[in-house]
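Minutes, project check-in
Item: structure for the 483-residue chain
Input as provided by the requester:
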Amino acid sequence: MYVLGLLTFINLLNYLDRNVVFAVFEPMKRDLQVSDAQLGWLGSAYIIVLSLAALPLGVIGDLRSRRSVITWGVAIWSTATAAGGFVRHFWQLFACRALVGFGEAGYGPASQAIIAQYYKGRLRAFAIGVYSVGMALGGVLGIWLGGVIAERYGWRWAFIWMGVPGLLLAVLASRIRELDRRPPPPVIETLRNWGRSGVRGAIRYFVPLVLWSGVGAILAGTLALFRDTPSPLDTAVFGVCVSIGVAWTVWRLVPLAVRRTTEAGAVAAGALDEFQHAAALVLRTPTLIWVFVGGAMVTFAVNGLVAWAAAFMARTHGFSVARVGAEFGLWGLIGGVAGALFGGRLADRLQQRWQGGRVLASGAGFVLGGPVCAALLLVDDLRWFAPLVAATYFLYTWYNGPLVAVILDVVPSAVQASVLGAFVLFSHLAGDALAPPLIGYLSDRTGSLRTAMLLLPAVGVLGGIVILVALRTVGRDMGRIGT
């Protein structure tokens, strides 16, 4: 229970640091003088980098150490979140949000693979549902607390206060014991090793990222000096340079993980072989195809709603930043936590009687939740606000535990983190990475954020239907690996 509790709490911080930026969209827009489309790109910066880095970091977790991936990830994303409070230009904040994504990239696959080690069989979906409570709590608290802090102290302090606690959690994460692997050394020895070789080794392998980030910063800063240069151009130049640095760094880290793996040679070779054929594994498993495609659609709907909810309430109903966080956060929190727990429990109960139980729970929430979300966006009577927010979040969080459990049910254990990394890559890059900037672009073009956001429940319903198609294939795919 300790490991599940710690990973759940870190997951809370994960989503808290992700979503704090959405709470301060309005004050940032005034302070940095950006458009809705640029605000959307701030919401997508970390998602894009997270998507690109998730698969290779998932493989590093399979081959080397999931604990290490978690530890370094928490430290990186916490530092980058806090750094967001010191920026002066749009491209600087874009860079910080991108680094948040790099730190968070390996956490989901590695942590869920560890949970899968501790919880097998019929309790797996419920355990991941408990873990997903951290996502629901963090996602809502990021907007809630971020809004309160921004109202009282300014939006910069929201980033600083959210980022600092993660450094302590990074130390606690370094003590997690992975089953079937050697126990971690004492804390003092861990810190000493970090000082001797860990920090130096990390610096050596992260030189490309630092170098290309510096090149991008210089180029973007130079472009910013010319007033007639379009403002998105300096951001695009910096983003390209950072992406090159991330790709180069990951390219160097994967061979390192393969060379230095401490697992048995046969297991490592098998995991590497599965990584090389990861795309083929997904394509020859029909359930994974439906889950990947539907998962991209539902993450588009969920994260688009999370990204623009605070700005929507401020513009449409005149809520202050603090009031958005308090009222929207409270009812979203109640609905999200209840939905994550209910969805996991419902999926496990159904799974005991029918192999499609987890698939049904994953897709049904979005089919049922689409009309409720549309009503939330269209209703002007604030008496309906609280129940509609709670109901939307309740139904939209059913899928958290069950959908991951479906993937774990149809994938060999040796490559679970790798395939989960592939799912993160696809669902984020093809789903929620597109939602914030697309909704922002439509808002700029139509002049109505409400009109633009109506796209979200429509895509969510379609995604739920796609997931439900997997009811036809999941039993056969589970039989292939004997689950």
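Outcome recorded: The chain has a mean pLDDT of 77.
No further action items on this chain.
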